Amino acid sequence: MADAFGDDLFSVFEEEGSSAASKNSQPVPASKGGFRKRNAKPQAVLGAVPKGKRDASSIEVPEDNILGKKLKIDSSADELNLADLMPRIKVQAVDTVEGCTHEVALPADDEYLPLKPRVGKAAKEYPFVLDAFQREAILCIDNNQSVLVSAHTSAGKTVCAEYSIALALREKQRVIFTSPIKALSNQKYREMYEEFQDVGLMTGDVTINPTASCLIMTTEILRSMLYRGSEVMREVGWVIFDEIHYMRDAERGVVWEETIILLPDNVHYVFLSATIPNARQFAEWICHLHKQPCHVIYTDYRPTPLQHYIFPSGGDGLHLVVDENGDFREDNFNVAMQVLRDAGDSAKGEQKGRRGGTKGPSNVFKIVKMIMERNFQPVIIFSFSKKDCEAYALQLSKLDFNTDEEKKMVEEVFNNAIDCLSDEDKKLPQVEHVLPLLKRGIGIHHGGLLPILKETIEILFSEGLLKALFATETFAMGINMPARTVLFTSARKYDGKDFRWISSGEYIQMSGRAGRRGMDERGIVILMVDEKMSPTVGKQLLKGSADPLNSAFHLTYNMVLNLLRVEEINPEYMLEKSFYQFQHYRAIPGVAEKVKTLEEQYNGIQIPNEESVVTYYKIRQQLVKLGKEIEDFIHKPKYCLPFLQPGRLVKVKSEESDFGWGVVVNFSKKSNVKQNSGELDPLYIVEVLLNCCKESLKNAATEAAKPARPDEKGEMQVVPVMLHLLSAISSVRLYIPKDLRPLDNRQSVLKSIQEVQKRFPDGVPLLDPIDDMGIKDPALKKVVQKTEAFEHRMYSHSLNNDPNLESLYKLCEKKAQIAVDIRAAKRELKKARTVLQMDELKCRKRVLRRMGFATSADVIEMKGRVACEISSADELLLTEMMFNGLFNDLTSEQATSLLCCFVFQENSSEMPKLTEQLAGPLRQMQETARRIAKVSSEAKLEIDEETYLGSFRPNLMDVVYTWANGSTFAQICKMTDVFEAVPAHSRPPFIFHVQILAKPAIKKYIYISQACKWTSICPFW
């Protein structure tokens, strides 16, 4: 069978005895899904074949054969030297109390020594009884051992961080506390300063007391300190990483990995994380990396239990779907979905159609009002759009949740906060419009707000002066501001590519803000649903596990250049030690075992007359492939829609279910808006009367319907079906009653279908795509001719009438699939054994050498030293622009305008009409970017020139230029409706700062006057 699997497709056309078969070779990939049995009369897969058959041998065979190229199972799993690859680590379980799991990862050669009880006074005393996980973590810290604490939001993880700070200060060591965002750093600074006083803050924007023993900073700042060899690190005993689960962030997660790798081995760590299922794997990486034990303290205990409710659009009540014990109530979930189903299409548009408030109160309005009436405030309302946040908040503007005294306090806090603004800026629409809402106890929090307003709103909410806060999901990123209730305005979000259900991890993170410890008996989470979801999706969302901590490591030029500059470490070392590589190493034993098991299964399958069976198998697999091609033609709306009249018999089959024959009732066209292009993508839904399982129709949406079992008397139900799920269209049409609401009328159609099947025992006749449907496409004719030839070969094959045909075919199919799995597992094993991204590193080094950033010996040049200082923008392009003299003839206003292209990231349809004084520098920048793209492409890096150029967006160049020329912020706000007009400019001052830092390296002054000009016109930093 081996060579038969490896033979090219032309062997199918040879005589059966001439196949050069060899029993030692192996099968190659086979397509999944069996061959559909044909009618007695030879037909195409989805229709009859026209007359005028061609001989199979005359067909031109494509190179991509049925089963792929010959499979080589060269090395066995036993031959792999895993000992040289695997990190040598052992994990020891530690006895602890119920509700808390304690494990420790330590080097394989080290003997586990139990933690010693504390001797003497604790570094910090607490006025409350510590939870079990807090006591375990503090015991690890007292023993000077690193620890990862994984617990739910608001469980009290900060206690562990505070204790390590207290211990470090007592031992006269310095301690660094890192956080993912500046807002969280600011909050932690305030908290730690009140507790310890000897605390400093470093965020890039602000530096306070940098010589303090305890430094609060963002992870990016710590990374920069490590690359520069800061003297501070010599005195550091502990480093605390807050919200370490953000290491999986696609854009910024790599910074965490770089930092952890660069830190010295003698430092101890406290990692604070939300619940992650692979916490042990992360601890093993730390142990492997820094040759020290790392403990894992895990608890899923939630101090304040949560109740989860669903509010179906079109309904008038809440449905408890997960109780405080964590039990999923499927009956309540199905009732909620039934309400949504009964409401029909009106429910789907109800929320979005009422944001303007013109048709009466929206669902959000009703729910928030109910929350206030039942004293379930404060409530955080999460929306996945900044515009939605504001629209929903405005709908509540007639409600008032604050007392007169609270109003006065809000106004006092607000006025004190905005005192730093000029009189003109105090009249900005954003500033003026938000105060009336705040006084009523209603707040808004999203990335488009002025930083001063965001901080003010956070303070007001934490002081209990805001009862309803409308926020985007960034508010859940660790800022410690819990509420009693959390409300989701939607269960779907746009993630930059498409609309999808929010993941269980995202839901856990945001819903975790519900329930204030020591204040609420239980927290309340309400999920508004305006689209039908299956119980499986609902359970996965509401009861699913947290997202695993998977590495987002990727190479950047800034990383490579900095590593070339540092003598003790190189880019290859960074790749080898990354969590990304470690996760692949840890997968090796499992994959090797999988290969071994598959090989045993493969060798255990013996097929009589193997070569002949494989030849027959190939023919049938090719017929399946050709049948799919014919289906693709038939499914094109322009061909099939004219034949989907009421009464048409169609076959419905999805990946999970096969409904068999049903009857078309109607079809409808819907517009699917493509987010990236804004174009309309027609979507056709066919309503088909199908025989369904009664149980699946009970209290559930029709989309959740399942086909009736063979031994069951099902119930005919109209089910909406996507066009591509019609696996066959019959030439038969049936009469259907006008009124399908009575069950008897629907069941009568089932009897008619059964009569048709009896009348055509060899199979219900299908529409011929050429003769009946009139498809004149030459490509279809070619496919049909190939189908006919392969069918002729199949029917004339000696096995076609063999009584054991099906059993032999299934055996062959099974063996071919195992061969596919072996090949995939071996690819995975090979990938895990090699250092990943090494080829990309070689390509990036090639780019740096060709552009003069480094020598052939990987010695960093002057350009490279400048690029090392740039981490907030494209380091190659900005450095090239500086060295090419592009800035030399620009005014400071033109330079600031041009630099805006590096940091503006929002999608915007506004493309300004630029004057020549702005368009000229933009063209020069784009020309430089094209040159970089060309060099990158020549160096074998995958790069799309247009995508690369499109990442530098000039949408706000005219706005920034106007601002730099002295216009007020109020004036430029009228020039654009972009929310992020202020945040988008938050990085140019840093870019200028970088240019000033680069001054000694390139022996000349670089726009100090421009930097001064910029900072003088930006009052918000």
Structure description:
- The strands form five sheets. A ten-stranded mixed beta sheet has the order 3-4-12-5-11-10-6-9-7-8. The chain has a seven-stranded mixed beta sheet with strand order 14-13-21-18-15-17-16, with helices on both faces. The chain has a five-stranded antiparallel beta sheet with strand order 25-24-23-22-26.
- Helix content is 41%, strand content 14%.
- The protein is α/β, with parallel strands linked by helices.
- Among the domains are: 100-298, P-loop containing nucleotide triphosphate hydrolases (Rossmann fold), CATH 3.40.50.300; 344-521, P-loop containing nucleotide triphosphate hydrolases (Rossmann fold); 645-760, Beta Barrel (Elongation Factor Tu (Ef-tu), domain 3), CATH 2.40.30.300; 840-1016, Sec63 N-terminal domain-like fold (Orthogonal Bundle).
- Strand 19 and strand 20 form a beta hairpin.
